[in-house]
Write a structure and sequence with these properties.
With 188 residues, the chain is α/β, with parallel strands linked by helices. Helices cover 41% and strands 14% of the residues. It contains seven helices and five strands, in the order E-H-E-H-H-E-H-E-H-H-E-H. Strands 2-3-1-4-5 form a five-stranded parallel sheet, with helices on both faces. Helix 1 crosses helix 7 and helix 3 (59-78) packs parallel to helix 4. The longest helix has 20 residues, at 59-78. The radius of gyration is 17 Å and the shape is globular. The two termini are 27 Å apart. 34% of the residues are buried.
């Protein structure tokens, strides 16, 4: 059996807090691992605990956060590693910068209406932001610039996380970034 090399890529999932980015990324991680893919999952909350813990949530700090993450994604993607990145990344200009600096960039808009993400908010962050207790909160006191032309647009209020993950996996398969999952043989 010959080993097939797949190109590196950056699957950049953007959306409001609570839209489903991390949930879908974890499903993708499990499936990509089962297929033996070379990939890394970069998640906003995890990255802020290590690589960017010195940054706050001002526009300048958010931009610096994404700048650092895009550097990591650039190194990985150009060396044949797939990057599944889940970051709010609210500004289109910054996402465009990531697109320009990485290999095989795909923007994935993980979209859910504000009322839906507020209902999903178990930490009460949106309520605190509305009450003015949290400053620079995306979608409340800070803008979120929805992608104008993402490669994939996921509506998490209209499909399950598994359905969303499968749509993304199919997209990656169709473009030759990951091996195609062979369907189980049907009895004759």
């Amino acid at each position: 059996m010959t080993h097939v090399e797949y190109p590196g890529y950056v699957l950049w999932m953007t959306g409001l807090s609570g839209a489903g980015k991390t949930t879908i990324a974890l499903l993708l991680e499990k499936e990509l691992q089962s297929r033996g893919c070379k990939f890394e999952r970069l998640d906003g909350d995890v990255v802020r605990e290590s690589l960017t813990r010195d940054l706050g949530f001002s526009k300048e700090d958010r931009d610096k956060n994404i700048e650092r993450v895009s550097f990591v994604a650039k190194l990985l993607s150009r060396n044949g590693v797939g990057c599944v990145c889940s970051f709010i990344s609210p500004y289109q200009a910054v996402r465009d910068m990531v697109r320009a600096s990485t290999t095989n960039f795909m923007e994935v808009f993980i979209d859910a209406p504000l009322n839906v993400v507020m209902d999903r908010d178990v930490k009460g962050m949106y309520k605190k932001a509305i009450a003015g207790e949290i400053k620079n909160f995306t979608g409340i006191s800070d803008p979120f610039e929805a992608p104008t032309n993402p490669e994939i647009h996921i509506h998490t209020d209209q499909e399950t996380p598994a359905e969303s993950a499968q749509r993304i996996l199919s997209y990656l398969e169709e473009r030759g970034y990951i091996p195609v999952r062979e369907a189980a043989l049907q009895p004759a």
